[in-house]
Amino acid sequence: MKRKKAVAFLMAMGLTFSVALTGCGNSGGSPDQETVEKQAEKETESGVSESDDQSAKTSEEIAELELVVGHAVIMPEKEDNFLEKKIRDAIGVDVTMNILGAGSDYTTALNARISGGDIPDMFQAPSTDALMQYVENGLILCLDDYLDQLQPLVDWVGGENGIKPNRIGGKLYRVPKAPQGIYDLLVVRQDWLDKVGAEVPTTMEEALEVARKLTFDDPDGNGVQDTYGFSGSGLFGFNAILTSYGGATTNELYLSDKGLTSTLLSPRMKEGLEMCKRFVDAGVVDPDIVANNPEVLRDKMAQCKIGMASYDWANMYKQINWDLITAVDPGADWIWMNPWDAQTGETPRYHIKSAVNTIGSWVISADVADNPEKLDAVLKLLNYVVSEEGNRLVCYGEEGRHYNVEDGMIVKTDLMTTECEYIWLYQIASRNEMEYLSVKFPEAEGSIKAAMETDRIVTYTEAVIMPEDFHMEDMNKYIEENIIGFIFGTRPISEYDQFIEELNTSFGFGEYMKIAEEQLKEQGYME
Amino acid sequence: MVRKMKSDRALNLFIYVILSLVFVICVFPLLYVVSVSLTPISEVHKNGGFLVIPREITLDAYKMIIEQRMIPQAMKITIFITVAGTIINIIATVVMAYPLSKRNLAGRKYLIPFVIFPMIFNGGTIPAYLLIKNLNMIGTYWALLIPGAIWIYNLLVVKAFFENLPEELFESARIDGASEFCVLHKIAVPLSKPVIMTMVLFYAVGHWETYFDSIMYLPDQKMQTLQVVLRRMLTPNVDLNADITIPTMTLQMAMVVFSTIPIVVIYPFIQKYFTQGIMLGAVKG
Known about the structure:
Chain A is an alpha/beta fold.
């Protein structure tokens, strides 16, 4: 009996140890030979692990950089990545772009890597909050000391003005980048307007009337009342109305005649909310508007359920999307509109436009400073992607293969569509937006221009960094819930002032405005 | 008697109706997914985004998935992970569950809490990453195979199953001179096929769905598993970016079918073990 007990116990313990030992014994073999080779190859390529020294020895003059991003993009294999080869040929830097999940997965995976001491040489900061923590822990390289070596980059972003939004506490941690375009567009079906005998609306009242007709006058002629006059992608859709009143569905900071203010504090915000509620009460707003995402809205438009929408040119006018939107009704004639005039004497505006472009900025690991080769490689890369040659490469691919230059204009070839799907990831300092979009999506050029030229509220919200103990997310959540309540009638608009008071007392909104003002003054956005 | 038969028939009819309803509720979403994946997107939209029986059939969405350059490689990797991982899981689980099922195991009352503790309190992502990094498993498939070699919940199920096997069977084997390993191999395992096959399914599905571990532990893009590649094709709408195109509903549904089919295919082979009577006639008297 004793013997049996001993055998059983030994078996249990044996297993526990064998599992642990198998784990430790990496050198003891791997699932197959191919895996070992892949591992060796990976380490040589990426230089992620402790094999840095070895890989430096094997590739001697070629410095290696690992770049990490969080996007759902399919990358080619290293040997098929023409872009990395070209960069290597041009500046002698072996860049490896790795994708570490997307969205919240990226934040988790990146944090785990960073905690494990595996800090990528360069990576996209998942959020300002996360970046603040990295900075506090001394993980991010401050670029101020190297600005004299980054003159091309400084010139590319337009000097100090382009650099200052990227500073955190006065220091430059984020790689500055050129401003990115705004895509939001207000669109309407011209063919339906003709059917119901309406004109493109220019004022709020006209828009409400047109929305009524597009809802109740059976614009699709199927004898069923199955259309909605107005929809959008999420609560933001109501910015089609609110921004003309100086408001917005979210808290956005902007400069008015009286200094810094928030869209929530706009004197006409209540009028804007009343107008939104009139749209909702009239039964012309897609009841799912808050839950819609771009994909759902695109499908609804394709299914001929929507007459007017707050959407964006990319999801509409890119050929691939246009084909989808017009698949059911090839006669669907979606045109874009000017912002609706609230007739308050102010310029009609549609949606917001951030004055600063810091979302998705690249940062550099502080460890790079200890390795002169890597530091040199980073500086070379940053200057290369803004040079004419380098920027063309990361925007359009290889000349003669992915694009041709005809009369000084860049003309894309079919191969650009098929072989360059991933190269935008390498646009570390962004791009010349208008030229880029016109080359890549010539079919949508008109809508791109219209989106760029639309009057919007210029916001500075992104430039403000709140202290860690300020519960920004909670405040934004509370704002969102209440704005939905005001628009859909679950909270009377007469309580709006009380709502602002609640923000002040419970969430420190007043404090937020003060800090924002101080920071914007420091950054030179206001006096 | 006649009345009894009538009431039986009514009961049967009632049961059939209820089961048919359950069947429809279960099959309907699957049918919808398959139908949308086979229908041209314009046809889907014409039906208001909803259809059950496709009128026009196209395999475009599937073609698009298969033609994606990373899919064949990712598929091979995932099959490898699933097969190798499941073998490791089953061996480890059985070999650990068997001794733990023995009431006379020395130190059992200390071992069981030791096993259960990590099921309730686990270290979290970062400690797991640090551990795997220190074990030099980053960038190797070991990282997907070894840390999850035993799922405690599955271990407890197998242990409970072993505990229910009649001790007399083992006694008789031992009397015949069988070693402990022989008892496990020749008696416990063959009698436990239903639970082992259930675990095969659970573990295999778990490996087939490997997603986050692949992102975390395999930095090399060409080592990624199928779910990671499919997710990348499905592009979440995080940021508005002109370079990203939202995939169509058809493509999304095709991906669901594509990633589910292999598991659905192995299910019938395992199902018979679920329903198989086990101990019938094993112990007499």
